[in-house]
């Protein structure tokens, strides 16, 4: 078959003959526009992330189906045993499972970056004279939309099952806001691993090894006061615990200022350390 | 200041780069004059792709220096990036996006306002015969179309230097011709092209100068004609009327010329290298003598030509082995870089 028929439409393809006039019009050197600002370049890259969602909507599966399964599974698994009823448990549990699900989704940022690089399109991005972190910032901004979507799906399921937050709309929005800020910062851990590790599979493997203990050894599922001392020490230091405490407080209409300060510090540290490591790696290869 | 610069587009001295045990670049020197197509010719794994990636600021060399239009690829990477474009061996566009979206994305990243980026995208798609496929995802494009959208993306900002890394590998002959036409048009408009290829005829047809690369080093450099004559022999191609006369023709040629004679796949074709070392006569005299012997023996020759050796033969003479496949460089690099 001819080279120009990629899809089997059945009609005869028009053969492309390079025309020197047509090529001349596109090859005439024009004035070069000034390079875009860091913000504009990052937004352009997040537009790319949105286009990818448009063309490959299946990728939203992990921000919709996965969170729904998490909420249903754990609410009915633990609800009766840990509280009087699933509905009672949900008042305590929903902010925690929201944090768990969204934080787990952050690992797809690393997986996505790894695949992108494998395909070679980043070679072109890295030869563009734009602000260096823009490609990665844009990618994570696109992912933030997925985090928001996952949080809203969980909230929806929670409300249907009987979650009634005392903090009202503002409290819930503040809680989701905190979660999204932390997740944005936390994503830089995965961009680093996405650049360093060999394959998509190893990125997944490492993420799971980090995420499982981090989310389970926390105050997501139960009150840590019944845990042995050494475990309590870990749980208290765990950023996920601080995040859950502050999201829980916000949704209940209160403020946990010490947890909030911890979250700000953790977020800043993730961006500073892993953002720098990521960019170092991105520039060096 | 003029956008186009005369003089040298690329100057590289002693570039080295290793990936683990593999020495991809082992002291490569390059001088690429501006405004020409310069061919880097060599087998897979010779170091061509690594050289391109160093020059395009994608990879740091372990040692040596490289300047693109006078800008150092390490300390002035941004200035280099503003003037170059890369069409890699692997698709350097986003396969999930459509042709239009890819070009608008790049236009925006190069600083064009939205409407100008769209207009530029449409222009490019039309010039590259992709208007019909504009709204289709690139992953649904054929090999030839994919190459074209890739090159269109690379000339979006009319770069001063375009890297084409094996632009026709895996393409059918017609798509290959289309790419060649495009390359000729690009260079005619003042863009310097650094072309890597493992196809000798491609370097021969497109490049005004060629560097033959092997084991991370330039082992010969010059115009295609210079490279061929440096090997110092010509080739006689003969086509006989009767295939059954070929064995006798072979024997005659061998005895009169005392040179290697090659039987081609075509049952009437026969090839002999003449004018080699130690021969008293020059190539044309030898060829004339061979023709005389054949006609005396009653062997009818339908077609006769005396030409320079092919670049294939040049490569063989330079490296003592044919230009064959080896390992895939970028895979080595991805392996080692992690």
Automatic annotation (TrEMBL), chain A:
Membrane topology field: Multi-pass membrane protein
Ranges where the ABC transmembrane type-2 domain occurs: 58-285
Subcellular location: Cell membrane
This protein's UniProt keywords: Antibiotic resistance, Cell membrane, Membrane, Transmembrane, Transmembrane helix, Transport
InterPro entries: ABC2_TM, ABC2_TM_bact-type, ABC_2_transport, T7SS_ABC-Transporter
Protein's UniProt keywords contain Transport: yes
Transmembrane segments: 60-83, 89-113, 134-163, 169-196, 203-222, 259-279
PANTHER family: DOXORUBICIN RESISTANCE ABC TRANSPORTER PERMEASE PROTEIN DRRB, TRANSPORT PERMEASE YVFS-RELATED
Family: Belongs to the ABC-2 integral membrane protein family.
Protein name: Transport permease protein
Organism: Micromonospora lutea
From TrEMBL, chain B:
Main location group: membrane
Pfam annotation, one family: ABC_tran
SUPFAM superfamilies, per database record: P-loop containing nucleoside triphosphate hydrolases
Subcellular compartments: Cell membrane
Species of the source: Micromonospora lutea
Positions of the ABC transporter domain: 10-240
GO terms of molecular function: ATP binding
Membrane-protein topology: Peripheral membrane protein
Keywords: Antibiotic resistance, ATP-binding, Cell membrane, Membrane, Nucleotide-binding, Translocase, Transport
Upper taxonomic lineage: Bacteria, Bacillati, Actinomycetota, Actinomycetes, Micromonosporales
Protein name: Daunorubicin resistance protein DrrA family ABC transporter ATP-binding protein
InterPro entries: AAA+_ATPase, ABC_transporter-like_ATP-bd, ABC_transporter-like_CS, ABC_transporter_ATP-binding, DrrA, P-loop_NTPase
SMART domains: AAA
Family: Belongs to the ABC transporter superfamily. Drug exporter-1 (DrugE1) (TC 3.A.1.105) family.
Keyword Iron-sulfur: no
Family matches, as NCBIfam families: drrA (TIGR01188)
Keyword Cell membrane carried by entry: yes
């Amino acid at each position: 078959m001819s080279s120009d028929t990629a899809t089997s439409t059945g009609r005869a393809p028009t053969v492309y003959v390079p025309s020197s006039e047509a090529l001349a019009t596109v090859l005439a050197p024009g004035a070069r526009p000034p390079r875009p600002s860091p913000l504009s370049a990052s937004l352009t890259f997040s537009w790319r992330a949105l286009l990818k969602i448009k063309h490959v909507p299946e990728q939203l599966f992990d921000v919709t189906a996965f969170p729904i399964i998490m909420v249903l599974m754990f609410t009915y698994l633990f609800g009766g045993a840990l509280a009087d009823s699933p509905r009672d448990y949900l008042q305590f549990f929903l902010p925690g499972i929201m944090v768990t699900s969204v934080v787990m989704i952050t690992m797809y940022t690393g997986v996505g970056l790894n695949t992108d690089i494998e395909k070679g399109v980043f070679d072109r991005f890295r030869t563009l004279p734009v602000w260096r972190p823009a490609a990665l910032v844009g990618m994570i901004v696109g992912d933030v939309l997925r985090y928001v979507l996952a949080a809203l799906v969980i909230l929806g399921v929670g409300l249907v099952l009987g979650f009634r937050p005392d903090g009202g709309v503002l409290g819930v929005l503040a809680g989701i806001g905190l979660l999204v800020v932390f997740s944005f910062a936390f994503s830089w851990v995965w961009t680093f691993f996405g650049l360093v590790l060999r394959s998509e599979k190893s990125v997944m493997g490492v993420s799971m090894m980090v995420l499982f203990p981090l989310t389970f050894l926390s105050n997501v599922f139960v009150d840590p006061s019944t845990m042995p001392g050494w475990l309590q020490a870990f749980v208290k230091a765990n950023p996920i615990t601080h995040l859950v405490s502050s999201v829980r407080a916000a949704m209940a209409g209160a403020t946990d200022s010490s947890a909030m300060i911890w979250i700000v510090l953790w977020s800043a540290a993730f961006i500073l350390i892993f953002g720098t490591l990521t960019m170092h790696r991105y520039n060096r290869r | 200041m003029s956008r186009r610069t005369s003089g040298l587009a690329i100057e590289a001295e002693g570039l080295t780069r290793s990936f683990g045990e593999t020495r991809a670049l082992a002291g490569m020197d390059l001088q690429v004059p501006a405004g020409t197509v310069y061919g880097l010719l060599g087998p897979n794994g010779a170091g061509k792709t690594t050289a391109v990636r160093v020059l395009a600021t994608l990879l740091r060399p372990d040692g040596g220096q490289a300047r693109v239009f006078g800008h150092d690829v390490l300390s002035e990477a941004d200035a280099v990036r503003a003037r170059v474009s890369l069409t890699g061996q692997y698709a350097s566009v986003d396969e999930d996006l459509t042709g239009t979206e890819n070009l608008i994305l790049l236009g925006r990243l190069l600083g064009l306002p939205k409407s100008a980026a769209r207009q530029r995208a449409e222009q490019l798609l039309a010039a590259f015969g992709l208007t019909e496929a504009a709204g289709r995802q690139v992953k649904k494009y054929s090999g030839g179309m994919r190459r074209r959208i890739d090159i269109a993306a690379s000339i979006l900002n009319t770069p001063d230097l375009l890297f084409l890394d094996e632009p026709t590998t895996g393409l059918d002959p017609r798509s290959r011709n289309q790419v060649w036409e495009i390359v000729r048009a690009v260079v005619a408009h003042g863009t310097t092209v650094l072309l890597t290829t493992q196809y000798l005829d491609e370097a021969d047809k497109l490049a005004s100068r060629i560097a033959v690369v092997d084991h991370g080093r330039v082992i010969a450099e010059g115009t295609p004609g210079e490279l061929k004559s440096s090997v110092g022999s010509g080739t006689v191609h003969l086509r006989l009327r009767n295939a059954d006369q070929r064995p006798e023709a072979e024997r005659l040629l061998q005895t009169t010329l005392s040179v290697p004679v090659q039987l081609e796949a075509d049952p009437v074709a026969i090839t002999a290298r003449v004018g080699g070392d130690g021969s008293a006569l020059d190539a044309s005299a030898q060829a004339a003598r061979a023709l005389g012997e054949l006609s005396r023996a009653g062997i009818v020759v339908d077609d006769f030509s005396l030409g320079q050796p092919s670049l294939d033969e040049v490569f063989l003479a330079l490296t003592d082995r044919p230009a064959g496949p080896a390992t895939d460089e970028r895979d080595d690099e991805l392996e080692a870089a992690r």
